[in-house]
């Protein structure tokens, strides 16, 4: 690793101007691109004490070997240049966006002599107008099939078009009036291009103009007693209306907005955007974001807007004409949080659109409700992404193999157990044990522990709690392995094989007689050391152990000075994170149950012979536990259902020191 001081620019070299900077590694590869209002201030922040930097920033500056910068005139120019360089160099320490799928667009090749309507994916091409994205290609084809009745634009490939021209005979669409057949000269190039322009205008949202035009023609044909033509125009109007109805009206007419939502954790996030034009949802798109750099939600939003709109300044205009939808950048961009330099982002988007663009957070009304819908879609997309990664057999096998190689295990860890401790300032200490087999959660094997501590009132700290939990689990393992004898694998009630052996006498699974291949503890070196000490004290040396520190996602091994670093895109790290997060969730649930139960315990619960009904009667009669404690035996015995013996027991119970400060909840 390089020392940042070796390539730090000399004082006074860095200009105090807006610009974009690049960090390069020893091989000259760009590893990070950033922008700044003041290059001097921003770059100097990277060369402070390395220990004071965020871990990901530490890794970046120690990987880099040089830094370069480019001065620009304004912050808006810096925003555009940063996007261009990120797209060109794909730096490893910048945020990575990847589509959760390849979205199809409806494309019209306006640059061709005879424009063609088609479904397209991938990079956008100059001279082509795009509409969408759509969730499925069939949704585009249904829309196009309806519109070709009114706008019979060419849809055939270049090969089919050329062959029809040579034969002098159009394809089937030409015979059924769903193509104007420019291949055989039924329509001139200018008229066909005008037809394609009308198609684009309709798709861009200017629908009322064409409905009014067809309605007027229908009335004229009816007045001329040309009822056959009037019927065809009536059917054309119905086709346009059906195509329009495919997009739900969600906002008032005339509303043009893109609505973004962001949901995630420290490692990755799901992003969704709804494209609303003329109050209708015209398209939806989603990404999964890997947080490879230290970025808050506002930074993610800024990078996201660069991702979505950044290509418009490169391909949005060709020879002075718009390539795509003239409203590719809408009037409003609604985001969950404002980007850090919202004024500059608005200025940049305004330049792309050619008129004012407002970036804001919706506060109330229909737009806020729709933003909540987009957020729920993002939550679903993230859950689906995680489920697909976890459920794929090939991915799970790769994850287990990566863990085996990283930890240098003799075999893949087919059974992984993870432990976590949860408490509230030392009270109601609970611990969890979760089990993953073949990369999948085995919830029937989950266990939770109430941490007792040496004195019976809880452990002093998390390391002592971890030591106790590991000791109890593996002491039971040793005892049950010795007592169970020769055990056989069994099947559960549904016929699925159990992960552990069963007791032949009871037919029930032996709870702790099946050892894991790998034990994972939630924490760093202290927790790992405590778990290793517990295993060593029991003489267990055939179970691998590691810890996963949540803040930096480092894998710690017993006795090692430095952690094992897995790539952030590693399936092995992803599996360890899932195991750790599940243990954390299960531990919190166990802790909450204990805390809830403990907080609802009354001082009267320990009185022999006093049940819930008579306890309630006492509290109703005296009004509070404080008044009940001050009452005499005779006063308590006067309550209906109470006797002198029970009343004396109540007085004695409430007089004990342990109940002196008790309260009823």
From TrEMBL:
SMART domains registered for this protein in UniProt: GIYc, HhH1
Keyword terms, alphabetized: Cytoplasm, DNA damage, DNA excision, DNA repair, Excision nuclease, Hydrolase, SOS response
Pfam families: GIY-YIG, HHH_5, UVR, UvrC_RNaseH, UvrC_RNaseH_dom
Domain UvrC family homology region profile: 259-531
Entries under SUPFAM superfamilies matching the protein: C-terminal UvrC-binding domain of UvrB (SSF46600), GIY-YIG endonuclease (SSF82771), RuvA domain 2-like (SSF47781)
UniProt superkingdom: Bacteria
UniProt xrefs under InterPro entries: GIY-YIG_endonuc, GIY-YIG_endonuc_sf, GIY-YIG_UvrC_Cho, Hlx-hairpin-Hlx_DNA-bd_motif, RuvA_2-like, UVR_dom, UVR_dom_sf, UvrABC_protein_C
Residue span(s) of domain UVR: 208-243
Signal peptide boundaries: none
Segments of this protein annotated with the region Disordered: 485-508
Subcellular location: Cytoplasm
Function: The UvrABC repair system catalyzes the recognition and processing of DNA lesions. UvrC both incises the 5' and 3' sides of the lesion. The N-terminal half is responsible for the 3' incision and the C-terminal half is responsible for the 5' incision.
Family from the record: Belongs to the UvrC family.
UniProt-recorded name of the protein: UvrABC system protein C
Organism encoding this protein: Cellulomonas chengniuliangii
């Amino acid at each position: 690793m390089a020392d940042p001081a070796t390539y730090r620019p000399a004082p006074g070299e860095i200009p105090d101007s807006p610009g974009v900077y690049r960090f390069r590694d020893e091989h000259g590869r760009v590893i990070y691109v950033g922008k700044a209002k003041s290059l001097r201030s921003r770059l100097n922040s990277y060369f402070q004490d390395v220990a004071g930097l965020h871990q990901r920033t530490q890794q970046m500056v120690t990987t880099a070997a040089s830094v370069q910068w480019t001065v620009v005139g304004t912050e808006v120019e810096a925003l555009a240049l940063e996007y261009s360089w990120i797209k060109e160099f794909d730096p490893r320490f910048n945020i990575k966006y990847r589509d959760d799928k390849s979205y199809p667009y409806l494309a019209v090749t306006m640059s061709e002599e005879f424009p063609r309507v088609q479904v397209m994916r991938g990079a956008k091409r100059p001279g082509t107008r795009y509409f969408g994205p759509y969730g499925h290609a069939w949704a585009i084809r249904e829309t196009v099939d309806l519109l070709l009745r009114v706008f019979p634009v060419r849809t055939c490939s270049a090969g089919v078009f050329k062959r029809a021209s040579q034969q002098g005979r159009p394809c089937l669409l030409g015979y059924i009036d769903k193509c104007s057949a420019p291949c055989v000269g039924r329509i001139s190039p200018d008229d066909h291009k005008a037809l394609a322009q009308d198609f684009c205008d309709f798709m861009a949202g200017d629908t009322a103009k064409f409905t009014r035009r067809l309605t007027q023609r229908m009335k004229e044909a009816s007045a001329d007693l040309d009822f056959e033509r009037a019927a065809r125009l009536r059917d054309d109007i119905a086709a346009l209306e059906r195509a329009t109805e495919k997009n739900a009206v969600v906002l008032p007419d005339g509303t043009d907005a893109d609505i973004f939502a962001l949901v995630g954790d420290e490692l990755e996030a799901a992003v969704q955007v709804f494209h609303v034009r003329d109050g209708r949802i015209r398209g939806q798109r989603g990404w999964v974001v890997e947080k490879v750099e230290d970025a808050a939600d506002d930074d993610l939003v800024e990078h996201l807007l660069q991702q979505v709109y950044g290509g418009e300044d490169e391909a949005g205009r060709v020879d002075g004409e718009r390539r795509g939808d003239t409203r590719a950048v809408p009037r409003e961009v609604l985001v969950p949080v404002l980007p850090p330099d919202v004024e500059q982002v608005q200025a940049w988007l305004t330049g792309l659109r050619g008129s004012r663009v407002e970036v804001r957070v919706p506060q109330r009304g229909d737009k806020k409700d729709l933003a909540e819908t987009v957020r729920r879609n993002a939550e679903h997309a993230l859950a689906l992404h995680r489920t697909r990664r976890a459920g794929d057999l090939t991915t799970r096998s790769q994850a287990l193999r990566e863990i085996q190689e990283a930890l240098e295990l003799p075999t893949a860890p087919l059974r992984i157990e993870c432990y976590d401790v949860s408490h509230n300032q030392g009270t109601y200490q609970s611990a969890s044990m979760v089990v993953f087999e073949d990369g999948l959660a085995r919830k029937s094997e989950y266990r939770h522990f109430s941490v007792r501590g040496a004195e019976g009132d809880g452990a002093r700290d998390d390391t002592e709690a971890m030591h106790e939990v590991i000791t109890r689990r593996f002491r039971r393992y040793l005892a049950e392995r010795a007592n169970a004898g020769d055990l056989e694998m069994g099947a559960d009630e549904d016929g699925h094989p159990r992960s552990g052996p069963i007791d032949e006498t009871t037919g029930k699974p032996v709870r702790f007689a099946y050892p894991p291949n790998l034990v994972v503890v939630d924490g760093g070196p202290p927790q790992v050391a405590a778990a290793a000490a517990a295993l060593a004290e029991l003489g267990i040396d055939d179970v691998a152990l590691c810890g996963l520190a949540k803040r930096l996602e480092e894998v710690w091994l017993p006795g090692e000075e430095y952690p094992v670093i897995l790539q952030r895109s590693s399936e092995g790290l992803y599996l360890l994170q899932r195991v750790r997060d599940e243990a954390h969730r299960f531990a919190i649930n166990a802790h909450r149950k204990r805390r809830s139960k403990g907080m609802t315990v009354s001082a009267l619960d320990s009185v022999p012979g006093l049940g819930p009904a008579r306890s309630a009667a006492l509290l109703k009669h005296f009004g509070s536990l404080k008044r009940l404690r001050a009452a005499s035996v005779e006063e308590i015995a006067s309550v209906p259902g109470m006797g002198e013996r029970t009343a004396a027991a109540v007085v004695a119970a409430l007089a004990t020191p342990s109940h002196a400060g008790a309260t009823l909840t």
